[in-house]
Amino acid sequence: xxxxxxxxxxxAAHKLYNPDWDKEKNEEIFGRCANENWHGHNYELFVxxxxxxxxxxxxxxxxxxxxxxxxDRVIEKVDHKNLNVDVExxxxxxxxxxxxxxxxxxxxLPALPSAVQLHSIKLYETPRIFVExxxx
Amino acid sequence: xxxxxxxxxxxAAHKLYNPDWDKEKNEEIFGRCANENWHGHNYELFVxxxxxxxxxxxxxxxxxxxxxxxxDRVIEKVDHKNLNVDVExxxxxxxxxxxxxxxxxxxxLPALPSAVQLHSIKLYETPRIFVExxxx
Amino acid sequence: xxxxxxxxxxxAAHKLYNPDWDKEKNEEIFGRCANENWHGHNYELFVxxxxxxxxxxxxxxxxxxxxxxxxDRVIEKVDHKNLNVDVExxxxxxxxxxxxxxxxxxxxLPALPSAVQLHSIKLYETPRIFVExxxx
Amino acid sequence: xxxxxxxxxxxAAHKLYNPDWDKEKNEEIFGRCANENWHGHNYELFVxxxxxxxxxxxxxxxxxxxxxxxxDRVIEKVDHKNLNVDVExxxxxxxxxxxxxxxxxxxxLPALPSAVQLHSIKLYETPRIFVExxxx
Amino acid sequence: xxxxxxxxxxxAAHKLYNPDWDKEKNEEIFGRCANENWHGHNYELFVxxxxxxxxxxxxxxxxxxxxxxxxDRVIEKVDHKNLNVDVExxxxxxxxxxxxxxxxxxxxLPALPSAVQLHSIKLYETPRIFVExxxx
Amino acid sequence: xxxxxxxxxxxAAHKLYNPDWDKEKNEEIFGRCANENWHGHNYELFVxxxxxxxxxxxxxxxxxxxxxxxxDRVIEKVDHKNLNVDVExxxxxxxxxxxxxxxxxxxxLPALPSAVQLHSIKLYETPRIFVExxxx
Lengths: 136, 136, 136, 136, 136, 136
Fold this sequence. Notes:
5 strands, 4 helices, Tetrahydropterin Synthase, Chain A, 5-stranded mixed sheet
């Protein structure tokens, strides 16, 4: 079993906001991240898949093909977008990096070829904060 | 003369939009950056000052003091903000990184002690795009 | 289960020295790292915790709060310090990065809220050497 | 158990080419990577070993000694080389990063002292593609 | 005047070899870099242009357009290539990074719009060696 | 004229301390950096030289030779050392990064071959603070 990771970049706006709470509570809990006029980030996305390398190609998966799948299912939907407003699969969810990484896993999983297993999604929100998800 | 650079980090939302143009022209010229719902970035800000090192401290400037000035004049105003909406000194300007770096220079310059000269402001918008300004 | 990592920075002096050995043996075993006048490093500390994201916030833990705990329990004690001399919880231990990362785990663990599990501590001593500890 | 990682750098030429296929099929499958005149990379190699730290040194392994072993068994064989042509242990294998990382594991494993276990080999081929192997 | 830099990535094979010298002298002068079977690198290319920002866009140049020009004139010609064999504008030149950066300047200069000046080309050959050229 | 930069790494202990001041004033001015038990850093040193590339080699200077000179004149003297105590050419100087970069320039300059000019020395003390010196 070999693990292959592809790194992709995108940037987006978002805010942290729980609609069940009033503005004061949102600001108390989320601080500057609750700014109603939004803020944003450059995100670095690490997608790791695993498999026995194929005998013909020596590949777990063609890294170019993996990149195309990530771009089609994730980057196109989130790059230069507002995560709270523009991204269908974040609808009704609090837009934390934790919830976002789980949503990316779910968006990507059905598009991967059956020859590989999705191992993990790692997402840097800033150079000093990142989250990682390994599935249920 | 020795040059000292302090690096600070912030993140913000913005969009590229010229109010003299209609939505179609803005989208034609600015592409995904014109998304009316905003997008955002992690910014890395490099502030470089120069001077003869002081005889008593060996410093061009105390890097902690320089950091405090940058935080007071720039980071507090822009971090977790919407550059088009929340930042007074971007009012009426197209929110390009080029215009932003010039505005940061002008915000910072009057706050620096006279013992140092401001040499340059460098601003990374993404890991692959940055601008630099050396004054007029 | 989602994993959240917060990265913090500090710098410190130390030396590698076993008091049970004479100077010659210390120099033979530890080489330049045994310099009796000390040397030092910029350390990058990665603290990873895990939990189900909270329903109200979408957080494993507020990254700001995690940062405050790390600063209170670790950074305040070690930043701009001599690890052999100034840090109580390194007393009587050989000041290797391996022993240091275990001591950081033990210093941090009791301060974390019960809603998260401490998963790992990773510590870069130089850009080319790092250690990681996952608990007993 | 503490994990220690040493990072080493090398650069090399290679091409992706399956000798059982004709030139057209190689170009169809491997694209630009099949260029018969070769291309190349700067590789970053992460070697992770694990053990209980030694009582006398506080070390999993002396990082200098680990570096010497990696240089002797791997870097000397591959640095400034053509992986398809010059590296004995890539003979008869398709020169994918996946096959390469497994071959590095096998080249390194017998040279490590019995006091440590080899945990993983991670190899960056570009800043955006890396593979990792944990043994059989 | 504002300076804008765009960073692009490519990888390639090459060797250092002076055809006026015999094999022994080439190996004596160029060491491992003279390996007749080639070696290679991941290159990071920094292209810096300068201008007064445009009143309509706030841009020195659209960074996407600059990227397209760099890709058309440089990346397409050198990415996944052998610099000594496949790149017309390196013909008859010793394939040092110094000669290469000058050749990139000359390849790029005629393709830039007249509204900007080419300020510098910086090229990382490894993370620890880079060259920079500012024109004649 | 082409500029070539070589990056080297070292680590060292130091403290900021002016012997003309008492302990209180040192602590007031230098804060945590005045810790009498020392602290330390990983330093990244960028040495830039310039010349017309040589007709025979295509080199400004052989980067390996430049590295050897830097190691002989600088790294050997400062790596794993205490800058205040162990480094002859810091004697009697306040050990600021500013004074240190000037001292490195002076230590290196006489050892460079006459075919190149020393252009600049850049020194990172932390990932967020660096100084640069271009000579008198």
